[in-house]
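Entry 12.
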Amino acid sequence: MAKASLPQSEGALLDNVLSELARKHDASEISGWETGFTNLSRALDGIRSGLYLLIGAPAIGKTSFARQLLDQVARHNHVPGIFFSFAETREELRIRTLARLSGLDQREIRRGSAYLLHWYGVPRLPGGEPSDLPPSWEKLKSVAAQARNWLDGIYLFECASDITIHQIEAQIAELRTRSQSEQMMIIIDDCQRLDGGDHVGDTRLQIIAEQLQQTVRKLNLPVLAVWPDLASGSGALAQSWGEKVASPDVVLVMERDATRIKAMNELGQATILHVVKNRGGEKGRLAYDFVPAFAAFTETP
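Predicted 3D structure (tokens):
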């Protein structure tokens, strides 16, 4: 039987450790994955393995932000991504991406789905001719074709109401094998619908967050879980979310920006993303403009 190798001391490994850190520093200004949002990447030091909790009031744009973040991580870092949805259909999630990429109103794209959208922007006509499509459909098909490369790494799942965290883990493991990639970004929208027993409120949040943190440790992946804030309020209340639950590595709280909202036009919303907990970097406030019609978030100075 071969002898087990003796462990090396930290001093003996120091040169190798420093060389690896130097290599990473040369590769990027952040240690994690690029988010596609410059200020967010800087604040978080990029996306790394860990539990990220995104909290916000209903209809504030949490799902659109999560979908955009997943798309941008996949696009910038060439890694697969999985979006688990309890409320939105695959078609609705696809339309959000197409609206953002094309600059076409979601309603216009949705009306076009009378032709039956068949995979990102490629229409299947029931008895009609391609010439029947409005010109905007050519734009839609064009941006869809340009995005196909990174969309090949995106997977959308509609979750049944009784799905368990173990079933989600099994799905992730299967897609790891299929994609031949150990690294991927995971989104779980409306994560309050996971099994938290009969508990409600902060207790339910703590139980589900701990389950998700165990999943993160087991799989060594970044998981962004979206949680609704049904009693949203001021920025001071946003800060309190950082103390409500211990498990997440990062807590992000989204709310409308009352100081900028008057300057926005009727199509847009002024939004703040509070980084209220961050084990790997800075805390602070990040400003965004959100246009619901295009499901698009843009960072502002």
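Annotation: The CA atoms of residues 4 and 12 lie 18 Å apart. The radius of gyration is 21 Å.
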